[in-house]
Amino acid sequence: MWVNWSGGQQANPRRTDRPLDEAGVVAAVQRAAERGTRVRPVGAGLSGSPLVVTDDVHLDCSALTGVVSLDGDRVRVRAGTSLAALLGHLAGRGRTLTVIPDVLAASVGGAVGTGTHGGSVATGSLSAQVTGVRLVDGLGALRALDAESPELDAVRTGLGALGVLTEVELRTVPLAELAVREELRPLDAALADGTLDAHAWAALEVHVPSGEAVVRRGDPVGADDRAAAEELAAPANPVLAAASGSAEALGRVVSWLAPAPWPGSRPAWKPSSRWDGGLAIGDPHVVLPDPRPWRGEITEWAIPRDALRAALRELGAATSARGLELRRPVDVRVGPAETAWLHPAQGRATAWIAVRSPRGTDHQPLFGLVAAVLEDLEGRPHWAGRHDWTVAELERTYPRLPDFLDVRNSLDPGRRFTNDHLDTLLGP
Known about the structure:
Shape: globular
Strand order of the largest sheet: 16-13-15-14-18-19-17-20
Number of helices: 14
Structural class: alpha+beta
Radius of gyration: 22 Å
């Protein structure tokens, strides 16, 4: 039996194929076509949605790993490679990705297929960095798409419905350390002063009932950052020593950050051993990811950037009126418009709002209310999170859906890569 990372999705596939190379993927898909069975490619299992749930065939591509080439600013990597492994390889060569997601255990193929994003107003998601792919289509044929291929904007966020990615080519940038700072601020002030737009990376962890937020922001390292880090490292500073531990220290004075009132939540955001007194300096893939990724359920929504303030206000009013407790702070990030046809940020500058529910609790009432509030603000769900959208919602909100479906008809005319969830979401 297959179980996803949070434990909320399970599957009993009749068969699990584990190809060792691209030829093995071709053979597995051709075999499924001959037998008339459906295939769902499986990544690291981090998604909370039932994208890969099936009773037919799981295609586990975890053996398709490794960097194929690094040429100039482009890296070509096998799709089963974890983001952690890719970023580690790039760092050894003085390069990195412009997008650093919270969880680096995700496979490259899975992260691209679901539109995984970071926290930069100037940089799109991982999908936006894709400049080419190799994939196996529904007939078992190997196809190569490059930046000039009209189908690439379909495949960039393909949900595993167009084929099995075997290789992905991504843009890279020179590696440079970031100075990441953390501070507690009133939410209104954090939204009003442009914090989310003024830094290389930024995120808010919002306690909606109190109107407070932990602001996290990252920028290229300057001389003042080095000096501050050296001062914080000095053992004879009792004030700063008391503040070390980041959110643990904040939790001593801010009740909603303390571990005790939030069972199952991560008590601190401490990316590296250099984190101290609200400052961390290090490579982006070291200081940006969450060191204790969330194993509960999550629903995340992409809303128009200018609707963020209203969204947080209305979420607070709606949950208070219904008596639904936001057991975890709400995560907020922003990003630019995307070109991928089914990416939640397609065509518009976007604010991302993530709401979490602890394992073992009924998430349906809260997540249903969140969906109702954010849909009214033209919200679109992140495909890796919990949602109950159908093709009717996609037809209303994704203008390029017909183009995506045309590509689907071309690459998978026999619907080899579907399941009940995708039948509901994209149509049979």
